[in-house]
Amino acid sequence: MTELLGHEKHEPVANPGGSTRNGLSRKTLKGEFGELAIEIPRDRHGSFELKLIPKHQTRWSGFDDKILSLYARGMTVREI
């Protein structure tokens, strides 16, 4: 979110478009592991989108495969 908006949380708006943080959206993902409730940050213009879970997606199959592929690409456990 910081990269998209160009400023940290609680800092003055520094981007020319004027988009700011606008709270969180709650989403429940369903998969092989059961249900998982997550909170997704949002911005005023609605341009922020998660890379792993696109907008309007509620089913999440292959969770373990995605985590393993991130680890195989060199991400640390903390980054994941």
Automatic annotation (TrEMBL):
Pfam families: Transposase_mut. The keyword DNA-binding applies. The keyword NADP does not apply. Residues 1-12 have a biased composition (Basic and acidic residues). GO terms for biological process: DNA transposition. Required for the transposition of the insertion element. PANTHER family: MUTATOR FAMILY TRANSPOSASE, TRANSPOSASE FOR INSERTION SEQUENCE ELEMENT IS1081. Belongs to the transposase mutator family. This is Mutator family transposase. The lineage of its organism: Bacteria, Pseudomonadati, Pseudomonadota, Gammaproteobacteria, Lysobacterales.
